[in-house]
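Posting for a labmate who doesn't have an account.
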Amino acid sequence: MKLRKSRKLVSILVTLSMLMVLLVPLATPALASTNYSGVTTKTFDPDEKAAENQDLGTFMIDIDPLTLGESTALLEAVDSNGDRLDINDVIVSDPYDDFSASIADVTYSRQSDESFKITITAKKTGEFQWLMALNVDASDAAEGEITYKITKLTGQLESGTVTVGKATGGDVKAEVLTVNTINEDGGDVTIRLTESVAGALDKSAKSVKLTLPSGFEWDWNNAIADTVSGNAEIGAFGHGNNDRDLFVNVTKESTTKTVLDIKATIDVDDSKAKYGDVNMTLGGDSDMTVTSLIIAVFGDYSATVSAEDVKTVVAGQLEQDIGRIVVEEDSPGSLSKGKTITLTLPANARWYEYPNVDDSNITVESSPTASGTNGRVLKYKVTKESTSKSGTVKFKDAKVHLAVDQTGDLDIEVGGSAGAKGKVTVATIEPVVTVTADVKSVQAGKQYQAAGDIEISEGAAEAIADDRDLVIELPNGVEFQDTPTVEVVEGDLDIDDSDIDVDDNVLTIPIDGTSTTASKIKISGIEYRVSGTVAAGDIQVKIGGGALNEVNDEDALEDLYPNFSGSSYNPFDKDGLDGDYSFDDDGIFPTQKWAAKVVNAKVVTDTTISETVFTIGAASYTVDGVEQTMDVAPYIKSDRTYLPFRYAAYAAGVTDSNIMWNQADQSVIMVKGDRVIKMVIGDTTMYVNGVAFTMDVAPELVDPGRTMLPVRYVAQALGCEVIWDEATQTVTIK
């Protein structure tokens, strides 16, 4: 029994041993891992010479376990922009004496200027650790982190990155967020310093040096450094021998980018300080982006005046918008409390809507006081003066009335006891119309004499008002013979053709609708009867009326001022203001009645016209040097010069009343003194006082139905001299 039990036990043990042998190959081996970790980092300035041979930080390769075989990887150094740095050399270290070297051989081979190949050949298995670093040319490295980049090639070396350095060499930006004006009492400034990278502010008692110009000093005892962001540490400020220098004391460099606000007071020595920009210079141990900076403006107790949003306005019109008037203090407190600012219009303007006040860092009353006797002066009072910052006052949204005969710049004079003085242009005044005319010669004591055409052009769309009259007035002794032709030749101005009226020397043109584009009116077919008492010289035509001169039109004033009764009226009453400015039914500018004046005729005597010059092919000609216009040009035919019948007669001294056309026999008759000349269309016979003379060419008709005469025969028959100039193609009749 005992023997049998022993044999059974042995059998069980043998079976278990066999099972163990079978199970051993099925056991799972331990998993291998590869890790990279930074051991040291190096911070450096790429701008320094040493950066060309810069040691970077050390990193560790940890493989556990390293298995038999070969592993390879590519090693590079990369800056913050992703650019690869040139590698000078590989620095190797075995962290455990020869232990790691006993496990594997490590070799390096250069692949390019920027890369090395690492090869690890295992001798036996076990945990493997290896330290290494690179020496690089970092002179072109971008600011920021430097990393090793490992790229797997074969085996157990995996891809990865390790941070091993930081390229600083950053600079510091200095700026003044608000440039304030200071005066002889000094003032406060804030200078912002911003690192481009952490550590740009060097650790130094003179990290940044701020130097003021002569006449200005720092109140450095009260200067403070306010950290906006970052972690640079700042100690007490230093100063120079003359207090013009202020030193920013950095006691610990930042590891995160820092922004500092340096707040300080500037004291002024007004015996040395110069008005204008206060230009501070910058230096110190840190690299600065600028070497000078305007940190303040030193000004006197005065103010500058200017204009904004200058308008274009039209003469003769009511309630015209003008630009803004800006008064800016040169230094705080320049415009004192209780003092006044006055705005004075020129003589050709009157206030309608008074300027609103928009003020900053100063308070000016919103309602002005009117002063003077003509409604041109408004007075505003300063109720609270500025303190730490200069004040600005804007006078805006004003409207004015403008005289009809003034153009050019509309200037406002700024004055008053507050000290603001100057003249500013707030608008450019365009004429309501411009007028041009041909000039014709007429004689005193005669009727039906042609005068030059007149053209009236609007200065702007809607310049000519509707439901008003445009008036043309001739001087005493000159009257319209008949109603001339009035037409709109450009634009869409609407005139009432049916109601155009002539009353002796006044032509009235009713306006039915304003234009949407600047328009032009042409007055043609004008004939005058000229009194024998009118002296030789220009006939000046005046153009006006309510359509052009709203400011003097009773209907327009009644529309604008509901209380206007046609008697003396004070427009200041509308806003409860005092003042002596008033007008009556003669208008606001009663002595400035006419929008324009033009000459379209010249009174001459029979002997006054001495020389008339015609040019072949030109519709213009001159009478004693005064240019005039025909409706058909002279021409040459069969070696003879032809002139329009009527103008040839004018040149020979024949007046309109002595020029006749007979439709029945197609003949023309001219009378001058004791001579009567008759010529017939198509007939070469000319009759002088009934005596027939033969010409070598005949009169003829040309488009548009004009009679053309051979000028030499006509002029000689009437006792005139005819001169031909081949070079200039001109005919002169004397």
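Reply:
Got it, the structure tokens are right above this. The chain has five domains: 33-167, 172-298, 303-430, 433-549+593-600, 612-733.
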